[in-house]
Amino acid sequence: DAGVTQSPTHLIKTRGQHVTLRCSPISGHKSVSWYQQVLGQGPQFIFQYYEKEERGRGNFPDRFSARQFPNYSSELNVNALLLGDSALYLCASSLDPMAPQHFGDGTRLSIL
Amino acid sequence: GESVGLHLPTLSVQEGDNSIINCAYSNSASDYFIWYKQESGKGPQFIIDIRSNMDKRQGQRVTVLLNKTVKHLSLQIAATQPGDSAVYFCAENMDNQGGKLIFGQGTELSVKP
User: Fold this and answer.
1) Which residues of B touch A104 (CB under 8 A)?
2) Cβ separation of B43 and A4 shorter than 8 Å?
3) What DSSP string describes A90-109?
4) Is A57 close to B101, i.e. CB distance below 8 A?
5) Is B102 within 8 Å of A35 when comparing Cβ atoms?
6) CA dihedral B23, B28, B29, B34 (to 10 degrees)
7) B67 Cβ partners below 8 Å, 6+ apart?
8) CA of A80: how far to CAs of A15, A37, A85, A106, in Å?
9) Omega into B44 within 30° of 0, i.e. cis?
């Protein structure tokens, strides 16, 4: 069975641009969460969606937004990119918000 | 406040020995904890979880212990193998905040052949 898939795997952008990252959950999983992982640190929670509704938001600016589609896939959008947005962006899916979350291998975003 | 911390940033063990990775958490209301393994260039991989109504749970070669009195959990890996080399994170699942995971800093486990 396919795990959580994320695209693209790597991305290079410049300051001020916007980016869209995509995530396909494990089949049957209805909850998707997004995390940002800076090198040398643990992942930081950005958003959680369940049944297409936002269920939680972390301490990130409004430049970060997300949505979940009827097929439970999800997009993370970041506007007005800053150098500090350079990180590994991880998507995790679970059957429901309190079930174990399973992660994809992330999108490595570099801001120049 | 919310925080999940690890006692040691690095751990080096000999192949075949047992490994113990420790983690402290600060929110006494937390009721679900997960251990993840992250290899270089990959996302965190689920290892084992435990809910607050348990104090011990075993998996294949791994055991998680939860001590709610001192807000501490540990991951024990039996007969550590070179393939166990990775960064290990404990995470706290806080459903009253949307089910988000709070991760600690991580412990890097290095297995010497």
Assistant:
1) 43
2) yes
3) EEEEESSTTSPPEE---EEE
4) no
5) no
6) 10
7) B55, B73
8) 7, 19, 10, 21
9) no
- Other beta carbons less than 10 A from residue A108's beta carbon: 16
For B71-107, give one letter per residue: b (16+ CB within 10 A) or e. bebbbbbeebeeebbbbbbbbbbbeebbbbbbbbbbb
Q: Given CA atoms A101, B40, B19, B7 in this order, what sign does their dihedral have?
A: negative
pLDDT in tens, B41-99: 999 999 999 999 999 999 999 999 999 999 999 999 999 999 999 999 999 987 666 67
- Look at residue B65 in the predicted model and tell me its pLDDT: 97
| Chain CA centroid to CA A37, Å | 10
